[in-house]
User: Fold this.
Amino acid sequence: MFSSVWNFVKRHKRKFIFTGALVGGAYFLGRYAQKKMRDIGEREAGEYISQARRQFHFESNQRTCNMTVLSMLPTLREAIIHQLNSESLTALLKTKPANRLEIWEDLKIISFTRSIAAVYSTCMLVVLLRVKLNIIGGYLYLDNSAGGAAASSMAPPDVQQQYLSSIQHLLGDGLTELITAVKRAVQETFGDVSLKHSLSLSELEQQVSWVRAQVEGGSSTDPGAPSRRPLTWYMMADEESTLADQACGLTENDVLTVKLLNETRDMLESPDFNTVLTTVLNRGFSRLLDNLSEFFRPPPGDSAPISAADSLAEVSLPLAKIIPIINGQINTICSETPSYFVQDLLMIEQVKDFAANIYESFSVPQDLQK
Assistant:
């Protein structure tokens, strides 16, 4: 019996060797595959957790952006009103002075200037803070992810404070220059318009468009007027004003701050930023005109069966009546609670996408970006 079995094994030796190798190989291959699958699963789980953590941090950062914008609106509003104080003129008009016409003319220019400047500066505040807080947010994510492994923090607290304090340019010198540019454009557009001249909403929209054209891209008709500055200048000082050009002996934190400022300036000079800013400005001025349209409704007793658009087109108001309306718009534009104007700007998809792209760029280690 055993000899027959042995003879059978000898006759089929190669088959047994091949089968054994196949079974053994399959076993080890299965073990290897299991290990690989386990490693892949752990890596994917780690990547998923990392991505979820980064997404959570990003969303938290966006909420911080929104809260910061809203918290700065009162300061912005007070800064504009301080430079364009129409309240003193309206109070003076109540005393019925002899130069009432002159005061009305001044009130006309100041009222349009401060509402248009409010739209510009609020839109700029929204997009500038989006850039700044997502740059610093990306670096903070990297610092938190590295823990104690990093040789040095990329955004220590002192650097954060120094970097974010540069927003004061928009509330200070930048705002002053912006108001000057807007006031010059308003003077050219509305200066010769009589207080008795009636304007429809569409005509008023055209006038505002002319102001925008001069501020954003047009040349002044006054040969003595200064050259137009790019809109980014109102948000950020010239390079000559940065820490890098002030004095020698910069500290390590100063160097980091200059790096952040330069990265911010590069972002502000990008075509994508220009597109986003233009989109936000268009929405802001559209919202302003929507607010004004409420005052161009036909009288309640007028029941003619015409569309809302046609009814608005038919209503015209004397400029003297439009001035108080436009003058009060700053309280709507720069209102922090609730600020439907700003909330509308914050909900623009291009703003959200642009913020996500910035955060993505600065929350990924540089060696992974190459």
